Write the structure tokens for this entry.
Amino acid sequence: MELVDTFGRRINYLRLSITDRCNMRCRYCMPAEGVEKLTHSDVLSYEELLRIGRAAVNEGVEKIRVTGGEPLVRKGILPFLSSLSALPGLRQLVLTTNGVLLEELAAPLHAAGVQRLNVSLDSLDPARFAAVTRGGDLSRVLAGIEAARREGFPIKLNMVVMRGVNDDEVESVASLALDAPFSVRFIEYMPSSGEERWQSLVVPGEEILRRLSARFTLELVDRGALSGPAREYRIPGAAGTVGIITPVTGHFCGDCNRIRVTSTGKAKSCLFSGGELDLRPYLQEGDAALQEALRRIVREKPHRHQLTQENDEPTPFAMSKIGG
């Protein structure tokens, strides 16, 4: 079975948020004061999340990425991941984390069936890292990345590039891919937190590419069927790759293969679309109704989002609540 939207895009990728809570306060993800915490009853149970995952796989989803907030702060995550990884038909189980708890959890995550990790790494300078994350400890994150390497995880390192904040580190962060098999990805800043004059923070992907090309020889890598939105490049002789994600200046909507479900059960076909479908009523009705709800959200997937640098007043949202 396949999920195909009205524009012929095959949807085979689900981003599944399991919590809105986080042990960081990254400036591009949530306001400084954080977000209003959901109650226990607001958040879907692991059983409900597993049912959504199973329904999605039954409809043709082959890749699930577990996100948050920070997914590793939710108690009981390891048995849930084990159950998710055992779903027949699921080809990839991936987890996105800020890395703070990764050192102690890398081995258990591997044993639970997680196959790949995405780790946020917005600076290699401890003081700057703490400023961007509003208190994060870079040494803990680096220790977590090293622990994950020892477990054999393929690792993507994600840097949100912000002009005047950390854009002078693009080349040094890219250098991490020279000696280790990291996929280092640079992401354009998105106005999720409602920051004023957000356009001044955006470093266009083409500018990032020019700067990397001035330092390294780059060869374009073909994207696989389950790939994310990055344009990926290989540096000859390097152990890893570098990639660029351009949600603002060069949208990748034509190749979008994903839907997402929030920790409260709201299904969204596009990160920047206001439309969503509450899956809770369908969870009460049974698996057939749940699968039809997922087909509905795919049918309603827009051709493209409307986020551009010319859009002066995008609707702000906390990325941690959606699982971006």
In short: The chain is about 30% helix and 15% strand. The chain has one domain: 13-322.
